[in-house]
Design a protein that fits this description.
By secondary structure, this protein is mostly beta strands. The protein has no helices and 11 strands. The chain is globular and about 40 Å long. The chain starts with a strand and ends with a strand.
């Protein structure tokens, strides 16, 4: 089993920034591609960003391109999501997830492990 623990969420004003972290343990972190998803109240979980095992390939949902950046530090077993220019519609619980499948970044069912999530609230 892999354990994933997110941190860094909180309350921020529109236009502000936050950096989320996700610490992994229990498995060899560098064997897994990592993703960030989010879920707002009453909505389905949606893809935000993903990064390959080496960090060399990233992908983003259109609504965060240019504002969010995903990165990872395999030495620290941690993946990050740097968020800038936050909007009220970014308010959600943010989850990190791990998968061994190289494709299908957008597909939640392809991820093997999930964290518990961290709340991000953006006030207008």
């Amino acid at each position: 089993q892999m354990q994933l623990v997110e941190s860094g969420g909180g309350l921020v004003q529109a236009g502000g920034s936050l950096r989320l972290s996700c610490a992994a343990s229990g498995r060899t972190f560098s064997n897994y591609a990592m993703g960030w998803f989010r879920q707002a109240p009453g909505k389905e979980r949606e893809f935000v960003a993903a990064i390959s095992w080496s960090g060399g390939i990233t992908s983003y949902a259109d609504f965060v391109k240019g504002r969010f950046a995903i990165s990872r530090d395999n030495a620290k077993n941690t993946v990050y999501l740097q968020m800038h220019s936050l909007k009220p519609e970014d308010t959600a619980v943010y989850y990190c997830a791990a998968k061994t499948t190289p494709s299908g970044d957008y597909v939640p069912s392809l991820y093997d492990y999930w964290g518990q999530g961290t709340q991000v609230t953006v006030s207008s």
